[in-house]
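Before relying on records like the one below, remember that each one covers exactly one chain. Contacts with other chains, cofactors or solvent are not represented anywhere in the record.
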Amino acid sequence: MSDISFQQILSKTIIEVDNNFLEKIWDSLEKHIRREYVPPLFSDYTIILTEKGANRKIIEKSFEETVYFSNLSIEDQKKAIDKALKENGLSEDIVRYYYVKYFSATEWEITVFETEKDNKIEKVWTVECVYKNTPSEDGEFYGIKVKLNKYDDNSIDFKNRMAAKYGIYNMSDYARQIGTFALDLVNAISYYMQHYNPDVEYKLIKVEEPKKSKKKNGNAGYRQKIVLKSKISRYVLSDETHKTNIDNIRIYRKIKPCWYVRGYYQHYGKDKILKYIPPRINYRRDISKTEDLQPTPNRYLIENDDK
């Protein structure tokens, strides 16, 4: 288990995203992240997910069941929700922090930080993830194990608060939902960044060959250590960047001496060991690899179709 503090995860490469952007790209990515091995983006980084207006919606939903609230004007309803937010020390948005740490190319951990009592941000969930080199009987090629980062004397209080605040009583099912969402979130961001974001650059790529390990895992007992460090410290994914990367690109020209090829997985050997092939630099045939060249982000030339 990764023993890391909230202050430490903020010093890692940051990827900021909000739920509106995530919902917009989710339909196009879901089929990939559920059916494909999504390679790691970086070996450790932090996703900051902002659910805009989430606390306001929760309070409004709880108030809607009262006759008093339903009889208020729209303006007074807004004031009542504002008052409840202030009294409970809550902002309108819910912000969660997902720290991602790869222990090998096929084993990683997601630590979820949330705002708890007294507006303190605490480590709440740990999701252990593993890719299997062969799918299970139900077709899943990944496994997750979810742990609540609470001492026994606090876990009961936490469960009671979850029941009172969200109407959640089956913590086992809820933990599974937390784990599945965290896995999907990391894979969705990884897939999007590696396929659609032209600004991903690496300052360090170090990948070892798979080695036999005494520890049992889903990859026939083989582990492959990786180090993937980003050159950029913070990425922001929004509607604006999405439009720049995809929607506004109609006709483009790309003439570059070299470029990054994203990482991927491949099977090999009689045990079908899952091996990670890291990102690399490809050169044009007429360019010597001995030249001191580094890939630059894609820049698109948008041509006007109305000419």
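The radius of gyration is 23 Å.
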